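Entry:
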Amino acid sequence: MDLERKYEKLEELLFSFKNITSNDSLVASYTGFPNYQTMMALYDFLNPGEHGENINYCLSGKNVDSTPKSVKQGRPSTLKPVDEFFLTLCRLRQGFAEVHLAHLFNISQTTVSRIFLSPG
């Protein structure tokens, strides 16, 4: 088995938005939406931008204003905007602790907090 196929097989085991989209009962369980199409209708309405450029993140120790920033500082986000949306829905629906979400999404607890506290 080549390395690329092993990677694909492992990726299928990850807890991610991509891996639940074909199962409406998982979508309903984790997000509260009855199906993938309904959840994506809200996601499209929120319009985070292709690369999350329309999302304002909380910055520690600073006030977040309502004006969008043209350039984000720091490292690029590990998660795609749709995965950040999924993470937020899991927290709201299931009440997952930040440390648990950090483990599931393979990110730091600080990153989970920043994503969840972002004003929009």
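Residues 81-94 form the longest helix (14 residues).
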